[in-house]
Write a structure and sequence with these properties.
Pfam families: p450. With 635 residues, the protein is of the alpha+beta class. The chain contains 20 helices and 19 strands. The N and C termini lie far apart (88 Å). The protein binds protoporphyrin IX containing FE (HEM).
Length: 635
């Protein structure tokens, strides 16, 4: 009895105490006399994992308030430095970019992404596979991922000749930048984007007509997925076997997103690896890998078949021949490498775009003044004749860009970016950071740093518009220059897809606000005085809204105002179908009023006739005449 009591005492008190003291002394430890960043007390085995809670980006910010602008944490076995301020981010991603440009080996990423063969997770400085092992199936991918002697690198687009010091990543990144995401190629997907946004509008209209107000989220997912998969895979209608409405694929993609950043117990303590089998993580990982692998196989086989049959060529707007190739075509051109490509399904990018859209809508619903200002701007620039916002209109909408920039400042979709790893001994804000330390950049906290932003917690898009209504700060173009907001990261590992994502996000938001007015569906029991949309969060690879909000779309009615006696010139053939009225009614929202009503403006402009309601009231100013369509926006 006495022995077991002593054993118990030693187990419960002395061991944790010793471990605690060890960890505390590790805090003060100096590496070669150099100063390590401060670190809070941790626990044996877990280190500081338990401090992260369910919303790590918030927990890390609170820890930073207590421990300073750089912290050293131990997440399980992994030493991790956290950079929560613009100054730390700038030093890590600009001044010492090279030293901070590694990516850690993440077990799940390696297993799901063909041994980690993806640009985003590629090692920067490690060797490529010496034995050219390319996993052919899940079992092999798992074996390679867990072989700690193998340095998991890449051999795309050329087989790696040996120790090439990040050669794979460099090559793959070059292909991304030059061939896949170059401005010319992004522009070549314009018609696909505009086609998809028209489908999105039609789906939302249909959902509204059918009083199915919850369809927005589904429609948005289809929209982003369609654009990215059109660009990546072309026009083929790819899906999983027996999955007519795409539901199965959606679930697999969700699982993929959740799994790729999961930390299996095996990664923290290899001897507890069996817990992953018992918890079902193992089986889920296998299922997800196999489903996506099968899909990719089909896509690549299809493209190879098409290449044999000859390539389609179309004439681009500038008169040059556009070969209309998608990402797979380009990759196959760069290297005839079929399923050994570094191609990934880009589910994280799809999600990021949707997240920005949803956060923007949530913020706009909670800030009706900004919503109205943005709608006015969009409708003024687009007018009633176009029927749709096209990419030509976007340049004239600085406030739209400002709203998206402000949304990403407050809600960086990848709140902690993609983890990095130091490639050599280095420094951060005067602290020593040893080689192979994991680096977490808290983009969420940086965007809300009160030292960098006035009213940092508030949604104020105006801060991104220069000169009182002039041009918007060229935010996407500034990636890597302004470290007060870093939703796309920066430096050599920064996101090369910002230019691709920008028109996708802008076009969707602009069209949704042009064509519809929005209201939050009631009945959710929210008390008066509370924001319309609950901004609670759930953490994942991207931070999303905790409570999905349901919006009701009310299609807008437009009238076109022309100077008295003048005919509409924009679309004369349609003139006959408009009912011409000479009405003067009460106040309505009028766009382009200045100099508008009083001056003799001859250009038609859009007026919303009380979106969604029949009590149409519109201000009629002499000498204007109403031309109204009976319903819906003018074609
Ligand atoms: C709103 C949309 C998007 C957001 C917020 C976003 C964000 C990010 C972030 C935070 C990183 C890590 C940056 C770093 O470590 O400094 C990243 C990397 C990356 N992104 Fe994006 N991204 C988006 C869309 C896209 C799109 C549409 C593509 C491609 C079609 C793309 C391709 C990539 C690639 C290839 C990397 C890895 C770069 C490397 O490690 O060298 N992203 N993205």
């Amino acid at each position: 009895m006495a022995v077991s009591l002593v054993t118990l005492l030693v187990t419960l008190v002395v061991v944790p105490l010793l471990a605690f003291l060890l960890l505390s002394s590790a805090r003060k430890q100096r590496a070669d006399g150099r100063r390590l960043p401060p670190s809070p007390p941790g626990l044996p085995l877990l280190g500081h994992l338990h401090l992260l809670g369910r919303l790590p980006h918030r927990a890390l910010r609170s820890l930073a308030v207590a421990h300073g602008p750089v912290m050293l944490l131990r997440l399980g076995r992994v030493p991790t430095v956290v950079a929560p301020s613009p100054a730390a981010a700038e030093e890590a991603m600009k001044t010492r970019d090279l030293a901070f440009s590694g990516r850690p080996r993440l077990l799940m990423a390696e297993r799901l992404l063909y041994g980690g063969r993806d640009v985003g997770f590629a090692s920067y400085s490690e060797q490529c596979y010496m034995d050219s092992r390319v996993p052919k199936n899940f079992a092999e991918s798992t074996r390679i991922a867990s072989d700690t002697r193998t340095c998991v690198g890449f051999r795309f687009p050329h087989p790696c000749p040996g120790n090439t010091d990040g050669e794979y990543w460099r090559q793959a990144r070059r292909v991304f930048a030059l061939h896949l995401l170059a401005p010319r190629r992004v522009a070549s997907f314009r018609s696909a984007r505009e086609r998809e946004v028209a489908t999105l509008v039609a789906r939302v209209r249909h959902a509204t007509a059918a009083a199915a107000s919850g369809g927005l989220s589904d429609a948005l997912i289809s929209y982003s997925k369609a654009i990215i998969s059109r660009a990546a895979f072309g026009d083929g209608d790819y899906g999983l076997a027996g999955d007519k409405d795409g539901e199965k694929l959606r679930r697999v993609l969700d699982d993929f997103q959740e799994l790729v950043m999961a930390t299996p117990v095996r990664e923290i303590s290899p001897w507890l690896g069996w817990v992953d089998t018992l918890s079902g993580l193992e089986a889920k990982t296998r299922r997800t890998f196999e489903a996506l692998d099968g899909l990719l196989e089909r896509v690549i086989a299809d493209h190879r078949r098409r290449r044999v049959c000859g390539r389609r060529q179309v004439l681009a707007a500038d008169g040059e021949v556009d070969d209309h190739r998608d990402f797979v075509d380009v990759l196959l051109d760069v290297n005839e490498m079929d399923n050994e490509s570094g191609l990934r399904l880009d589910t994280d990018n799809i999600k990021a775009i949707i997240m920005v859209y949803q956060w923007a809508m949530a913020e706009l619903m909670n800030h009706p003044h900004s919503m109205r200002k943005l709608q006015d701007a969009i409708r003024r620039v687009t007018g009633a004749i176009s029927g749709n916002v096209t990419e030509d209109h976007l340049d004239g909408m600085p406030y739209l860009k400002a709203v998206i920039s402000e949304t990403m400042r407050l809600h960086a979709p990848a709140a902690l970016l993609i983890p990095r790893e130091t490639t050599e001994d280095t420094e951060l804000l005067g602290y020593h950071i040893p080689a192979h330390t994991r680096v977490v950049i808290n983009a969420w906290a940086i965007g809300r740093d009160p030292a960098a932003w006035e009213h940092a917690e508030e949604f104020v898009p105006e801060r991104f518009v220069t000169g009182g209504g002039g041009a918007a700060v060229d935010y996407y173009g500034k990636v890597g220059q302004d470290f007060r907001s870093v939703p796309f990261g920066a430096g050599r590992r920064g996101c090369p897809g910002a230019g691709f994502a920008a028109p996708v996000m802008e076009l969707a938001l602009a069209n949704m606000l042009y064509r519809f007015d929005w209201a939050v569906a009631h009945g959710d029991g929210r008390r008066q005085g509370m924001p319309s949309v609950d901004m609670g969060e759930v953490f994942g690879l991207s931070v999303r809204l905790k409570a999905p909000f349901i919006l009701v779309a009310k299609p807008c009615r437009f009238a076109v105002l022309t100077a008295k006696g003048r005919k509409l010139t924009a679309n004369p053939s349609r003139q006959k179908s408009y009912r011409q009225r000479d009405l003067c009614l009460g106040p309505a929202r009028i766009f382009a009023v200045s100099p508008g009503c009083r001056s003799r403006q001859t250009e038609p402009f859009a007026v919303s006739l009380g979106c969604g309601s029949r009590q149409t009231e519109a201000l009629c100013c002499e000498p204007w005449i109403w031309h109204t369509a009976n319903e819906g926006p003018l074609p």
